[in-house]
Design a protein that fits this description.
InterPro entries: DUF1636
Number of domains: 1
CATH class: Alpha Beta
Strand content: 15-25%
Protein name: DUF1636 domain-containing protein
CATH topology: Glutaredoxin
Strand order of the largest sheet: 2-1-3-4-5
Order of helices and strands: EHEEEHE
Number of strands: 5
Structural class: alpha+beta
Distance between the termini: 40 Å
Length: 129
C-alpha cells in the first residue's frame, strides 16, 4: 500500500509578495515533490489550504490504516522536496506509518506539526444495555 503526499498549493511564505512571485510557494514545492514522488512510487495530490498558513509550506504524509503526519515551515526548494519524499518513502515501507527518528531525513527534522492516528476500521460496539 502506498503513502500519499498531500501538498498545500496555496501556501505562501510571509515574504511572498515582496519576492514578486508568480506562483505560490506551495505550487513551487508541489512542482518539486511530484516528479520525485512519482519516481519513488508515491502518490501525490494538491489541495487548496491545509489550514497551516502560519507554517507555510505544508504537506501531509498519510496512508490507509497508518499514522499520518503534518509537516510544514519549509522553504520551497530541492532540499525540502528530497527530504519530504524521503520521509514519505520510509512511511510507505512502514506497516504502521511510524518511522524511527534516527532514519528521518535531516531536512524534515524540526518540521513536524502533528501526528494523526488512523481512523478506526469500525465504529465502537454499543455498550450492552
Amino acid at each position: 500500500m502506498t503513502s500519499w503526499i498531500t501538498i498545500c498549493d496555496t501556501c505562501k511564505r510571509d515574504d511572498w509578495a515582496a519576492r514578486g512571485m508568480g506562483e505560490s510557494d506551495g505550487e513551487r514545492l508541489a512542482g518539486l515533490i511530484e516528479p520525485r514522488a512519482s519516481a519513488a512510487g508515491l502518490a501525490t495530490r494538491r489541495v487548496s489550504c491545509t489550514m497551516g498558513c502560519e507554517r507555510a509550506c505544508n504537506v501531509i504524509v498519510q496512508g490507509a490504516g497508518k499514522i499520518g503526519y503534518s509537516i510544514g515551515t519549509f522553504e520551497p526548494g530541492e532540499e525540502a522536496a528530497e527530504a519530504i519524499v524521503g520521509f514519505a518513502a520510509l512511511h510507505a515501507e512502514s506497516e504502521t506509518g511510524q518511522v524511527p527518528y534516527k532514519t528521518w531525513p535531516a531536512g524534515v527534522k524540526g518540521h513536524f506539526v502533528s501526528r494523526q492516528l488512523p481512523v478506526p476500521e469500525a465504529p465502537p460496539a454499543e455498550a450492552e444495555k
